[in-house]
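Give me a protein, keeping tokens residue-aligned:
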Amino acid sequence: MTEPKEAGRDPETLSRFVEHFAAQLVEAGLPRMPARVFAALLASDTGTLTSAELGEQLRISPAAVSGAVRYLSQVHMLSREREPGSRRERYRVHSDQWYEALTNREAVIKRWEDALREGITSLGPTTPAGRRLTETLAFFEFIEKDVAGMMERWRVYREERFGA
């Protein structure tokens, strides 16, 4: 756990933040171990940590780290990088991780919309279930339009505030 000491931070303070933020992510639906790994990466100055560093900081096994980074990689919340001249991987969060995660969710919502359309056709649009599916589909279509506009506004705002 060299990073917090190098940055002049109290490891206990860092740990409290990581666990508190991870708990918020868990409450929002993220699995516990990926939430802890993501919070640790987000709180690191470099935005990168190795498996060994994550294991040491979070006091978890290599298998737990592996499962967490696999999940986070699949949902586009981190990327893997090889250390130059080494077989060791580093895991990185990017400044646009929320954008990437939300963009990925947009693709999931499109698949849900397709499934809902099939369900409406199969169950009939005038049945109670069909009407419920139609309303659910309308909700996702509404959200999708709003998210697209919001993401464009975020890109402009981010560039103005933080640069390219």
